[in-house]
Structure formats: structure tokens, C-alpha cells
Amino acid sequence: MKVKDVMTETVKWVEIPGTRADALELMKKLGVEAVPAVKKSTEEYVGMVELHALFEKPDEDQLALLVNRNVPTLSPEDDLSKAAKVFLERREKRLPVVKDNRVVGVLAVRDVLERVLLKSEIQTPVSELMRPHIIAVWDGTPLPVVAQLVRLSGFRELPVIDSSGKLVGMISDADLVKLSDVELDSKMSQMVGRSESDSWAWDTEARIYITKKELKLPDKPVREVMRKEVVTVGKRTPATKVAKLMLEERAKQVVVQDPDERLLGIVRDVDLLKALLK
Q: What is the mean pLDDT of residues 111-123?
């Protein structure tokens, strides 16, 4: 099966030149974590604007400086196994499909799960696909701190536990974006110029106003905004059943628990693609 058989052909993109707010608005509208960027005049493909970049570069407003130009591209004629390998190696969730330097489609992990894995008879247990290392946040953690944990950990969705260590919810970077606003802040710095040749400038004070846009999160504990419905599975659950659960619940990952509800691991949607390569 080829990429063109699975990809989504209707593509929305942001244009360069543009602003952070343009990308944020489109991501919110589409409910996605990355969108293609093209040149405004020619619609030539430039790169991908990714959600995590908006958190990692809060001082940057120019879209051209937020674009990731190193995201791999796919051809419509590429075999789907190649796409699966790229998803796994690069931890991408959406890849642009490019032909003649134009975006002709987008392939998402969810597309592969829905149109390929669900129709297969693969019975690989989730224990062979999950990640055994888990990073969880306490339900009293303020949202700005959660955003930093998401950024530093490299996980785009984190389990939330209460004071007893019980799993009580999930929070993702997409959830944080929905709660955030791009706000305009003004900061003033002072620059004092001194010149031996221009004695008049010795006491001259030049004030420079620096205006920037930042992603602002409300100072609330994560328990107030987390998703309380958590998808959990046992370690023997087949990959196809896990994929079905993820698609039905629109979950990016599920928590693997033992019969005593202790956390054993996390399986992301992209991890399920390993089953296709076995």
C-alpha cells in the first residue's frame, strides 16, 4: 500500500510571512499539533509549524522563525512501511506529502491506524509496544509548570495522579493550547549612551520599547482542566483493539495498567505502528 492510498488530500496550511497567532488559530480550528507552511506568493512548501515550538520559543512571533524545515517529507508513491519507519524514528504525528515542491496531502498516524491497522488481523499484545517509563504530574501542579514538564520531557501528553498516586486524568499539549491565549506584552529597557566625542550625549537616555507576543496559560491547577476520562488497557490487549479504543476516544496514548490499577507503561498511537513492521 502506498502513501497516496491513505493520506488526507484536503490540506490547510499557514503562509509565510505570517505570525505565531496565525498558526495557533489554525491548529485550534483543526485540532492538530502541526500544520504545513508555504510561501505566500508561490505556495511552495517550506516546512512544518509544530505545536511544541510555540512553547519552546515564547518570545518569537515571526512564523518564518518557528518553522521546522527538517521535518521529513513523503512522496505520494512511497510505500506505507517507509512512512511508518519515519513516524517511529522521528516521533512525528503528521508528515507532509510533497510533489514538485507542493503540498498535495498530509499523512497522520491516525490515518494509518484507522485505514490500515484496524483492517489487519495483527494480534501483537500492547506489552510489546508500550513504553515502560512514565512521567506523571500531580493534580495540584499549576498549568504553566505542566507546560514546562511537557516541553522538557518530550512527551506530548502526561498522566495526572492524585496525592495517593491514583490515576485521575490526562493533560496534553493540545489541551494547553486550547486554554491559552497569545497575549501582547510590553517590556521597557533603558540604554544609556556615553561618548567622549559627543559631550551632549553623556546624559542622553534612550528608551527602547520591546513588544512581544507570548503564549499565556491561566495559573490554575491541572485538576481543574484535565480530561478525567482516561483510556486504560491491560498488557495483553491486542494492538488492533488498542487502536480502535484510541480512535473512538480520540486519545493520543493510553495507559497500561495491571489488575490492581498500577501503572505499567504508556503506549502512544505512533507506538502501535511497530506492529505493522513486525
A: 89
DSSP three-state, residue 130: coil
Neighbours of 129 (CB within 10 A): 20
Instruction: Assess whether 13 and 60 both reside in one domain.
Output: yes
Q: How far apart are CA 17 and CA 63, in angstroms?
A: 7
- 143 sits in which H/E element: helix 143-153
Grid coordinates of 44 = 511552495
> Residue 190's CB: how many other CB atoms inside 10 A?
8
User: Does residue 144 sit in the same domain as residue 130?
Assistant: yes
| Alpha helices by DSSP H, 6-92 | 20-30, 51-56, 80-90
Cis peptide before 144 (omega within 30 of 0): no
Residues 190 and 90 in one domain: no
Full residue range of the structural domain in which residue 191 is found: 181-216
CATH number, position 24: 3.10.580.10
| Spatial separation of the C-alpha atoms in residues 45 and 39, rounded to whole Å | 7
Q: Which is higher by pLDDT, 5 or 210?
A: 5
Of the chain, the percentage scoring pLDDT greater than 90 comes to: 54
